[in-house]
Design brief:
Strand order of the largest sheet: 3-2-1-4-5-6-14-15
Bound molecules: nicotinamide-adenine-dinucleotide
Helix content: 25-40%
Number of helices: 14
Order of helices and strands: EHEHEHEHEHEHEHEHEHEHEEEHHHEEH
CATH architecture of the largest domain: 3-Layer(aba) Sandwich
Strand content: 15-25%
Shape: globular
CATH superfamily of the largest domain: NAD(P)-binding Rossmann-like Domain
Length: about 375
């Protein structure tokens, strides 16, 4: 199979979808790998390293799409890439379709097979290709929050860990999955007073065990959310219903009850955000203020730490890439149910229930297409 890796064109996105070691593995199996010039530079990988691993370097972005059977990316295609996708192509990347009707419609029109990293899901509900980026975004969330709590950025001017004689900041995390747990670890390590809410008591039990009761856990009902939001200096949104739009937990009315200069880091922004007031921002202009609360809503947070994120992502995606390349996508999804859950759109049909539901569009079970 011909596997193509274009350079990411999303603003300040420095990750790349394959490392030289991944190229070597694919080439040894008899596949051809083409990589756009300078695609790996932002993550610290030169064209020479890719060539030594057996890749062919291609000058033009569009040529990668035209030549490859399987296109590996990190972020969703941007409008200038829509026309480069067509029937017969397989796209494997993060898509977060429930957050964008325009992208969904364009991928339907392309007739390409679109497999989303974030909905690849094992039988026990684990999201193996979302988890590595959630671990990173979760660990970054308190770090970003701590920065924007500083007065020069418009924050409350409070140090996350406090100092002897002065209490630490209150960090409230909604969602106790991968993002939430990792955010709790870092916030706790920085000395903050941490509260975690989730609708799933098992997730809260794990947090309670792990932190030996030193992190407060609360069931995420409306009453508790209302209570916790009022005392948060830093609120971290970390909820997910796989494939679906994020539930809008923090309404504008609730936001108004927060302390002035508090910070909201809405990590769930890639699925639309869990606050009514959230819209996506970029690394170069990451924050804005609504109702006196600083919002940090960057949809590709791990893009800021590409040397860590590219390695973490690709070590998890490579086994699936190999499987698609070896078997073709149809046999691969027939034999691997986790990968089958990743197929969001194929031949112009939506094959993921939650994506169809998000836009009230027809859903076609994948089995009808393979
Ligand atoms: N902005 C970024 O750069 C970035 C990076 C990685 C992940 N993310 C996003 O972060 C979000 C969380 O990802 P994750 O890997 O932690 O997911 P996860 O599935 O591991 O955890 C999500 C948690 O949310 C809980 N939840 C669902 N609905 C809830 C509700 N109404 N109230 C409270 N809790 C609720 C679930 O029980 C679960 O524990 C996702 O939207 C993901 O795409 C964003």
């Amino acid at each position: 199979m011909i596997i193509g890796v274009p350079k990411e064109i999303k603003p300040e996105e420095n990750r790349v979808a394959i490392v030289p070691g991944g190229v070597e593995t694919l080439v040894k199996k008899g596949h051809k790998v083409i990589i756009e010039k300078n695609a790996g530079i932002g993550s610290g990988f030169s064209d020479e390293e890719y060539m030594r691993a057996g890749a062919q370097i291609v000058d033009k972005h569009e040529d990668v799409f035209y030549e490859a059977d399987l296109i590996l990316k990190v972020k969703e295609p941007l409008p200038e890439e829509y026309k480069l996708l067509s029937e017969g192509k397989i796209l494997f990347t993060y898509l977060h379709l429930a957050a964008s009707e325009d992208l969904t419609n364009n991928l339907i029109n392309s007739k390409a097979v679109c497999i989303a990293y974030e909905t690849v899901q094992t039988d026990d509900g684990f999201l193996p290709l979302l988890a590595p980026m959630s671990e990173i975004a979760g660990r970054m969330a308190p770090q970003e929050g701590a920065k924007y709590l500083e007065k020069p950025y418009g924050g409350r001017g409070i140090l996350l860990g406090g100092v002897p004689g002065v209490p630490p900041a209150n960090v409230v995390i909604i969602g106790a999955g991968n993002v939430g747990f990792n955010a709790a670890r870092i916030a706790f390590g920085m000395g903050a007073s941490v509260t975690v809410l989730d609708i799933n008591p098992r997730k809260l039990r794990f947090i309670d065990d792990y932190f030996q009761g030193k992190v407060i856990t609360m069931i995420a009902d409306e009453y508790n959310i209302r209570m916790a939001i009022v005392y948060a200096d830093l609120l971290i949104g970390a909820v997910l219903v796989p494939g679906a739009k994020a539930p809008k937990i923090v309404t504008r009315e609730l936001l108004k009850t927060m302390k002035s200069g508090a910070v909201l880091v809405d990590v769930a922004i890639d699925q639309g955000g869990c606050a009514e007031t959230s819209y996506p921002t970029t690394h170069s202009n990451p924050i804005y203020e609504e109702e006196g609360v600083i919002h940090y809503t960057v949809a590709n947070m791990p893009g800021a730490v590409p040397r860590t994120a590219t390695r973490a992502l690709t070590l998890n995606t490579l086994p699936y890439v190999l499987e698609i390349a070896e078997k073709g996508w149809k046999r691969a999804v027939l034999e691997n149910k986790s990968l089958a859950r990743g197929v969001n759109i194929a031949y112009g049909k939506i094959t993921h229930k939650e994506v169809a539901k998000a836009f009230n569009l027809p859903y076609t079970p994948l089995e009808e297409l393979i």
